[in-house]
Amino acid sequence: MDIIDWQWLLIIASSVLLFVLSPLAKTTDQFFKAVHKRKAPNALVLTGSLIISWIFAKSITNAANLGLSFGIVGGVAYAGYYLSFAVAGLLIYKIRTVGGFKSIHEFLTSKFGKGAMALFSILIAIRLFNEVWSNTMVIGSYFGDIGSSAYYKAIIVFTALTLAYAIKGGLSSSIFTDVIQMVLFSILLLVILWKIFSVESFTVSDVTSSGTWSFELGLNLFFAAIIQSFSYPFHDPVLTDRAFISSPKVTRKSFLWASLLGAICIILFSIIGVYAQTQGFTGQAAVQVGKAFGVIILLVINFIMITSAASTLDSTFSSFSKLLAVDLGMVKDLTFGRVSMATIAILGTLPIFLNAEILSATTISGTMVIGLTPIFLFWKMKVPKISFYLSIITGLVFGFLLVFNVFPEALIFTEGKYADLLWVNIWGIFSCNILYFIPRWLKSNQ
């Protein structure tokens, strides 16, 4: 058997096993809220689910590549996004306990009206749509060149197998399989790190001394990630759905632990890229390191990609079905929930057969949603409804300025890669906050 045959075996065997083990949802509470034997997930289960649902195939590929480009500074910079969990955990705790709200949608409808809730729903629906193709593309690339029949076949089979167990149990399946996938991820990551550090010429000091702590060599991204962490989590229903299924205290504890442990996982995975840097490798860091260590380690790395992509994909399916059935109140029954999952699986896969320009045009970036920052950070403050739209639209405008590379260079005060990302976010956050509060100030001065 060659490596591709082994990869097929891993995908099929792991998916069939997860399908067999997944609980069958017989009630809407089991399907949409992950209630099992009348109990919500405990802190350990919820923490594991949060971490693995965010350590998706694309993110660990990015972590390894940033380690290759910037050393350990790149890994730390990318791990900055995991502040999102702490921000969401603490703010949603207050929204639930002080505000008494049972979902993000209820909060937005109550404060800003149905129009605001509808606009927010469009943004997160696009986010979920992006999650499907961005993760399955990574899997496809491990089976063949982009555009090859092997590439497309792997994507279709992987998506269908993941959909099968997601449909069986909804959010219950997603969280149950997340725990298994988190354990697998941890074991496989330790195997890779053990192999890397078993090389005599590579030590911990090589990791700690790799990279330079400067803006142009990683810190631009780090500070951009910290800024985005105050808005980024709220447009990700995979994360926010998990913030309302357990008790507020269990949820807050789980989110804080996920913030710390998730960041550690990303930094550890970036060490693969640091090792690739010391060896002078180029290209995809994880792939090159896997090839250098032989078939077994390459399969281990590929299996990490498979498990992390599957965990994000099943979470995406369950979040989309909950968005339609529960949050938007369409039809709250199991059949509708399962049909919704199949729908997003098909719609999310279609863009893969189109060109790259169409894919980038459908992406809602982290910068585009910075307008959510004042909405959630100052959730308790009373403002006119127009404040929501001013902040959201301003964030979208700054996002498009970055996408089309038309942000004025005179407003960028650092050098190097990601400098534009950092300063678009700094000026964007400032503008969103000012425009959010202007209607309140005008009203109070009348």
TrEMBL record:
Q: Does the keyword Membrane apply?
A: yes
Residue intervals passing through the bilayer:
6-28, 40-57, 69-92, 112-130, 150-167, 179-197, 217-234, 255-276, 292-313, 334-353, 359-379, 386-407, 419-438
| Pfam families, alphabetized | SSF
Membrane-related topology note: Multi-pass membrane protein
Coiled-coil residue windows: none
* Keywords for the protein's UniProt record, in alphabetical order: Membrane, Transmembrane, Transmembrane helix
Tell me the compartments it is located in: Membrane
What family, per the record? Answer: Belongs to the sodium:solute symporter (SSF) (TC 2.A.21) family.
State the name under which the record lists this protein. Sodium:solute symporter
